[in-house]
Amino acid sequence: MKINVFGNGKMNKIVLYGVPLDCKELKNVIDEYCEDVEVIAFTCDSYYGIKIDRDGEEVDTISLGTAQRMLKQGEIDGLVTVANRSNYIIIRKYIEKEIWHHPRFYACPLNVLPTEPKTEELIRSIFSNFTGAEINTLQFLVTENCNLKCKLCSHFAPLVKEPAVYDFKQFKKDLYRCSELLPNTSAIGLWGGEALLCPNLEDYIEESYKAFPYSTISVGTNCLILKNASRKLLDYMKRDNFKLNLTIYPPMEDKIEEIIGLLQKEGIRYRLSRTNVVTEFGRRYELSGNNDIDERYDECFEKFCTTVINGKFSPCYFPLLSHRFNEYFGKKYFETEDEIFDLYDESLTKEKVGKIMLTPLRSCRYCGTMDMEKWERCPQNSKLSDWVKDA
Question: Burial, 155: exposed, middle or buried (Cβ in 10 Å; 0-12, 13-18, 19+)?
């Protein structure tokens, strides 16, 4: 089966952007099934200037800047991001905003490489326009409770006094709604709070596998109760597309080798926080809300933390969780309600969600530059000065 994708009577030259292995796999698919498409080069943000060999054929690698210039100047007919295993945070960091809306900037869906047989519809989907709804990680807050209670926790977990677990029926409903609106999601994150406090967490993991079969499923944990995990939960964590994200804080520093030993013994893939042990937390929030929104958005390293809880979503967790701060201190310090979106709004489309994802939030005005402080637990009777810069 050979498909004439563009139907414009010429050979269309394209560049593939993404992880080199994925680019090579996608090139093989395009060579086999696309009659009018020629892959002339690969690119990524930091990997270029050499030739990649694939089955005896060499393919040039060029810089991402060069690829974007070629697209804008019409020297190539398309730039395709290879979604599988690629990182949309990096894509949005390095690809110019002008390119995001270019009609020949494409996002290859996650299911193209692993799906067999290759249908005509699947092949044509390689050249799907980038909408902004392609995201790296979709975070579901399976519980807002935490057993560590870090001072300056950006999720305000120490301020949550009552049990706050994401109802499983609601979670399941929201999960499948997200699979309709955000099918090109690289990873599903089950977070907290402390995710391991969520009863029957294995059910949440299992449902995530079903709703997003081509995505990585991850759970975030501080490891305090990892050794108490049930056999059933550990078995669910052994799957190929699962990853356990470990954040180690001072109380668990002397347990790192024990934790890693357990995971290696069980055959569970894991990712350790970059610093191994988190010894500092950042003070960022400002009650005044006088920060420049665009400036703070551009500099934010968490602006693509798309978060879901109880039928609502936001491109950032802060609008969804700031009410915990307001309730604890008895005053509406942070106004974020207009940036919490209803998953079941009938007017929502992939394109509308994409626009939401690519738009700076008014909530950004509450985030100042990060002042780092020594990590410590939150005091039992917390004060405003424990949380904000301008109390």
Answer: buried
Tell whether 272 and 352 lie within a shared domain.
Answer: yes
Q: Is 283 a domain residue?
A: yes
**Amino acid at site 185:** T
Q: Which helix (H) or strand (E) holds 173?
A: helix 168-181
DSSP one-letter string for 363-378: GGGGEEEEEEEE--BP
pTM for the model stands at: 0.85
Q: CA-CA distance, 129 to 37, in Å (whole number)?
A: 16
For residue 360, is it within any domain? yes
Q: Identify whether the C-beta of residue 45 lies closer than 8 Å to the C-beta of residue 64.
A: yes
Burial 253-281 (b: 16+ CB within 10 A, else e): eebeeebeebbeeeebebebeeeeebeeb
Return averaged pLDDT per consecutive 10 residues of the chain, 391 residues in all.
92 89 89 95 61 53 89 95 58 73 88 90 90 82 96 96 96 96 89 96 96 93 95 93 94 93 95 85 95 90 85 96 97 96 94 86 94 94 94 82
CA distance 368 to 385: 15
Q: Are residues 167 and 98 in the same domain?
A: no
Whether residue 174 sits in one domain with residue 123: no
Task: List Cβ neighbours of 204 (8 Å cut-off, separation of 6 or more).
Answer: 140, 142, 166, 168, 171, 190, 198
What is the end-to-end Cα distance of the chain in Å, rounded?
Answer: 66
Instruction: Answer with the one of 127, 158, 187 that is the final residue of a domain.
Output: 127
Which of 197, 204, 201, 191 lies closest to 163, judged by CA? 197
Domain that holds residue 98: 12-127
Pair (221, 368) in one structural domain: yes
Counting the structural domains of the chain, the total is 2
Q: Is 182 helix (H, G, I), strand (E, B) or coil?
A: coil
The DSSP bridge partners found for residue 54 are 57
